[in-house]
Structure formats: C-alpha cells, structure tokens
Amino acid sequence: MQLLGHWDTARAVPLNTNPSTYPVWTIKIDLPRDKIVEYKYIILLDSKLGNKSRVAWENLPPNINRVVNTHGKKEITVYE
Q: Is residue 43 classed as helix, strand or coil in its secondary structure?
C-alpha cells in the first residue's frame, strides 16, 4: 500500500512514543475503507544520510504479513 511505503523501507511510516507512553508506540493514519491492508514492522538499525538505512524486518514466517481489514470501518484501533 502506497500510504504505508509500499514495502519500501525508505518510505516507511514511523511510529511515535515518548517518555510518558513508552513502551507503547502509536500512529494515527487514514487508511482507505473496504480494503485489506498488509504490513510488517521494521526497526531502523542505523540512520544514514540520504534515504536508506539498515533495517531489521520483524520475524514472521515466510510470506506472512500482519493484516487489518477496513471493511465498513470508520475507525480502527490495533493493539499488538
């Protein structure tokens, strides 16, 4: 999905946290209705100048992604 970077780690959408909410990370994002959205979490291992960083993808089985179904939903909260 373009909105989430379309699997391009340089365009990934960052999650937010702060000292009062850590270790909870959040994001508020508008997703299209009536879609199945697939995603994975990544961790930036370092930050380089330019648009590329070394990343670690979360350890899920091959060809398995996290899924959110926005069918008929106006607002969704995901707790993981």
A: strand
